[in-house]
Amino acid sequence: MALLKVRVDSFGYESRNILQNISFNVPRGQHLAIMGESGSGKSTLLKIIYGLLHVEEGDIFWGNQEVLGPNYNLVPGEGYMKYLSQDFDLMPFTTVEENIAQHLSVFERETHQRRITELLDLIEMKSFAKVKVKKLSGGQQQRVALARVLAQEPEVLLLDEPFGHIDNFKRNSLRRNLFHHLKEKGITIITASHDPNDVLPFADRTLILKNGEIVANEQTKDLFANPPNYYTASLFGEVNEVPIGLLKSYAAIEKSVLVYPHELKTSDTSGVKTQVVRSYFNGGHYLNKGEAEGGTMLYFNTPNELKVGDTVFLNVSLETINRRLQIGKKTNT
Ligand SMILES: Nc1ncnc2c1ncn2[C@@H]1O[C@H](COP(=O)(O)OP(=O)(O)OP(=O)(O)O)[C@@H](O)[C@H]1O
What we know:
The chain is an alpha+beta fold. Helix content is 28%, strand content 31%. Strands 6-7-8-3-9-10 form a 6-stranded mixed β-sheet, with helices on both faces. Strands 13-17-14-15-16 form a 5-stranded antiparallel β-sheet, with no helix packed on it. α3 crosses α4 (138-151). It binds adenosine-5'-triphosphate. It holds the Pfam family ABC_tran. Residues 4-236 form the ABC transporter domain.
């Protein structure tokens, strides 16, 4: 079974080192997400995998084929791999339809119209088929760019912030359509994104980059349930680092555990005594900031708005505490 093998011992622009000790595999058909703060090296890594940047120390293989970088390929990029960069690379003076058609195989002329319709459907832009690309908004152009990379049905698809310019109204259905389509076709995907909504529902595995190094590479659900550090957890949203002694006063452990806001449950009578500082409307719930005894700030969710100055008692299940303590042990060793 084909496997994408990525090894970058070190890579830098000019003299500055950007990536080091990178090594991971992606089996055919798997969807890997790459998350990391801005500047952590996500785009650089995708460009290396696609063969746009030359790596002295490292190599990239798809099965037995080595991805040759710009020092060996006059036109960088491999036929079986497509890369959607943050700038879309469209032909502005031709129509949406022509932009897509240009990437369809010349050997399948009779099926072109059907494929164009299928791709326009996928990006929800059927009514724009005859519109010139230069007249489209940034988000619409990004959707056309997505259709273009899909037109050739690559074996490996690299997506760099694929929904960054698309508004929420279209974004949710587009990412469901797109990732469902790619999974059905068995395409191997690597998506670089800041947005946990691009990652949590769709990526089989998630790799976390920090300062150009891998800090985690796990099944997405396991990583969310057991984040190895604060940095990883905070990429998924708000998170608290809570001293165990605050949660369980009898515990003689000088450690903290990571607790997501939805894992802190309120009670009127017992738990960590906390005074409400702010209550933020989040749509389906309120995210509250509270000051616990001893001054620790805690973020916690409630179904209703809380009044500033109110006192609540917060609790975390023993099961959650124990699970998080186990990860601490694992990563310390
Ligand atoms: N062409 C370049 N020349 C020099 N330095 C660069 C170049 N491209 C990127 N960098 C630097 O490399 C580092 C990693 O950038 P990269 O774009 O890979 O990060 P990223 O994680 O994709 O960030 P973002 O999420 O903001 O897109 C940054 O410090 C950036 O300034």
